[in-house]
Amino acid sequence: MALPRIWTSMNLQRIFIQPPLIASLQWVRTLVSSTHSSNDVSGKGTENKLLLDNLKILGVDVKMARKRQPGVLRKNITNEHGLVHFLQTKGASREVVASIISRFPRSITRSGEHLEERWQLWRSVFQSDNEIVSILNRSPESFFRSSDNDNLEKNIVFLTSLGLNSKDLHRLLTTAPRTFSNSVELNRQMVDLLQDVCSSLGGMEPSQFAKAVISKNLYILIRSTKRVKANVEFLQSSLRLKNSELLGLLQGNGAEILDISHEILKRNFRMLQEKLDSVGGTKKDVIKLIVNYASILFVSPGRMSDKLDCLLQAGITVKQITEKPKVLDFSHENLKWRLDELRKVGYEFDQNGIAILDSSRKRFEAKLQKLDSVKE
To answer: Which of 63, 52, 119 is nearest to 90 (CA)?
Structure first.
């Protein structure tokens, strides 16, 4: 017979008074079974007071939980007790469990059976329980967002069949967990598109191409095939590269721009072309800059223009920028500071190049100190 919630609420503190391994396992199992997952709610707009009391005892930030997923607080039957016990047996501290529930309240609606099954699927990818606990602490959504374990398992099998290894799956689960919420068929459609792109460009290894793109662009499987196809066609018509060159770009540093909004991609390309043209650059310079540094198409026109102006006003040429485009990784403020410091020591970019700008702050300051001592 299920235990009344009022009884479980009054006795919840016993979970933390005694370590889970010391507490009676039979009592815990009874408690867990009495709080299985359910979609029942206590009434529209009415929060479950006993549930709120339980969460407060657990140390959950109720205000945050209410803001994140308010509907959970209206449920009549939840599994906060089972979740606490489950995560503690995996090595999570009381504080970590409370933080997870605060940020992703739906976690308390998962049954004990579901939690164990999902954990084992994750363990097929990750090395240890502690690693999974660490990820849950950083991003609870990655583990609890989907409730379909069967779909998760099918996606792991499918993505592994593409040649993606545990490291790749690890990055996908932590960075783009929605990939595993997709149906396998939806993910297969994107893979098929990537393989078709490779074949249409004369590539001999479409499967390897798809794997390379996914490994470099973890978000591509959660984008639409329509967007990716439009972006490929735009880059093909705008850059006018040889098929082999475009293929190399798309599976290299260009992979990360395939899922940008198509309109933003076109706008940023046009604005970059106009900016370089206004300072004496050519279309070849535009193409070279994108081939060497495709990430520039992520940068808003205003920020990109500010950075280019900053460099050009310091006497740096368009050609130097296209050959060392990584300098554009730095913020406008950082670039301005570096250029000011180099000006003070009389640094000549036309003679010495701009590689000095593309270094860590520690290395830059060391080089700056050396240049200053030579000047003196």
So the answer is: 119
